[in-house]
């Protein structure tokens, strides 16, 4: 079985999540339910502050989610703060990818569908990699990981429940911010992601674990 370094998983995870989310933004069929609340926050706040980017909304929203993690698992670790650092790094990567996508210009329906499918696949793969690194993941993945470990639930089940809850929160936010019938950031794509992402991530994890042995390249796990 080939070795795959967990540090590489961290880098790939952030890059794939940033690229995947930017592609789904370009598709405009609705964001992944995980990032939809932050995206809706970005859409609303940017009406008042044009500098308030999607990336900025991500780490602001994840700061609130981090508090929820501490309350849920009833403990606090330094790695939780490092997860927020990861969120900030991801925010910059996301904004960079969104800028690159803006260079593509307008896209027709078939291209939008392709962007959505590719974006959904890449974000799921990015999450899968983040679950296989000791380096603190984004708060989104941290929440699922900590709840799974604390209560002994199956990873894909916790992920699916979390995704559905995020989808509901996004719908409520869209309704409160933009009114009924104008659910910006939420669409049929969001519902598809909520239904299949958890299962898809589980399948990806099994696929990778059968082919690779995830090991640490550096002896830094104790610091995370």
Number of distinct beta strands: 2
User: What does the main sheet amount to?
Assistant: 2 strands, parallel
Q: Please trace the helix and strand order, writing H or E for each element.
A: EHHHHHHHHE
Q: List segments where confidence is low: pLDDT < 50 over at least 5 consecutive residues.
A: none
Shape: globular
Mean pLDDT: 87
Number of domains: 1
The value of Rg in angstroms is 17 Å
Features:
single chain, 224 residues, mainly alpha, two-stranded parallel sheet, globular
Q: What can you tell me about this protein's structure?
A:
With 224 residues, this protein is mainly alpha-helical. It has helices spanning 6-27, 36-45, 54-73, 78-102, 109-130, 139-151, 155-178, 188-211; strands at 2-5, 212-215. It has one domain (2-212). The protein is built from eight helices and two strands, in the order E-H-H-H-H-H-H-H-H-E. It has a two-stranded parallel sheet. The longest helix has 25 residues, at 78-102. The protein starts with a strand and ends in a 9-residue tail after the last strand.
Layout of secondary structure:
Layout: E1 2-5, H1 6-27, H2 36-45, H3 54-73, H4 78-102, H5 109-130, H6 139-151, H7 155-178, H8 188-211, E2 212-215
Parallel strand pairs: 1-2
Helix pairs in contact: 1-4, 1-5, 2-3, 2-7, 3-4, 3-6, 5-8, 6-7, 7-8
Question: Would you summarize the structure shown here?
Answer:
This protein is mostly helical and 224 residues long. The protein contains 8 helices and 2 strands; from the N terminus they run βααααααααβ.
């Amino acid at each position: 079985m080939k070795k795959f370094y967990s540090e590489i998983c961290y880098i790939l995870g952030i890059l794939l999540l940033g690229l995947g989310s930017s592609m789904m933004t370009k598709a405009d069929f609705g964001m992944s339910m995980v990032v939809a609340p932050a995206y809706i926050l970005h859409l609303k706040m940017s009406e008042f502050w044009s500098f308030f980017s999607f990336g900025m909304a991500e780490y602001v929203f994840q700061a609130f989610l981090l508090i929820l993690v501490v309350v849920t698992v009833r403990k606090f670790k330094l790695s939780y703060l490092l997860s927020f650092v990861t969120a900030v790094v991801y925010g910059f990567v996301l904004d960079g990818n969104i800028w690159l996508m803006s260079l593509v210009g307008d896209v027709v329906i078939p291209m939008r569908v392709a962007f959505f499918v590719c974006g959904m696949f890449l974000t799921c793969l990015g999450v899968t990699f983040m679950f296989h690194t000791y380096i603190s993941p984004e708060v989104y993945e941290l929440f699922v990981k900590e709840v799974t470990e604390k209560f002994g639930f199956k990873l894909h089940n916790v992920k699916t429940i979390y995704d559905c809850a995020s989808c509901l929160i996004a719908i409520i936010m869209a309704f409160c911010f933009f009114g009924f019938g104008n659910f910006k950031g939420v669409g049929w794509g969001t519902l598809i992601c909520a239904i299949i992402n958890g299962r898809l991530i589980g399948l990806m994890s099994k696929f990778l674990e059968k082919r690779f042995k995830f090991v640490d390249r550096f002896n830094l796990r104790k610091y995370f």
